[in-house]
Fold this protein.
Amino acid sequence: MRSLKLEEIEEEYKDLWPGGHWRPKECKSRQKVAIVVPYRNREPHLRTFLHNIHRFLQKQQLDYAIFVVEQLGNKLPFNKGRLTNIGVLEAIRVYPFDCIVFHDIDTYPENDNLLYRCSTDPKYTKHFSVYLERAKYIERYAEFVGGVLALTVEQLRKVNGYSNDFWGWGAEDDDLNNRVKLANMSFTRSKTNISRFRNTIHERDSGNAPDPCRRKLLGLTRQKYLTDGFSNLNYRVESINYGKLYTHIKVD
């Protein structure tokens, strides 16, 4: 995996629309896909991600755009769930996306045959990154849905998005899995080599220490998932830049 300068990557993908949007000229994609990436202090990883993911998505002839949602400042712990919720709401303001792929910035698909699409059956959501390089390609645990996953906009509305309450590392994806089950849906995953993902090796962000309340919060999903998520999301957008390679959303 190469990490080029942004200008070099832009030269490689000259046919992108503003905001990192692309769609095939020869056919109509079955789904409109927003790639939502929560982000803070990972600029080299962002360049590597953009260089690799555009090629992967264009080979699949997807109608897609990339939204990088950055949490400004280092005073508060990183809140992945809140950032992904913001990314969804900002994405559907600008284009009629029907499928949202949530993507960790340090995770890359190895197999081009892994289709970044949502399930056409409303009862099923998708988890793509089953086998991770950093876990030696061993399935972490049966309920693991972190890394890369896909839900339709309607499915996300049904579960009220992610929880906004997980500050720091851990458990927001487990909480989402609980929400999916409470809404009478379930994650599907392909347990084959098609679901192998590489990882960028890095030290954990000092502002992303494990959330000491995560286990307690996980036990409250049933009581609070309909009131914690899209429905109570408060945020201020500091800026939105529709750059060549991605839409960059900076939030407080």
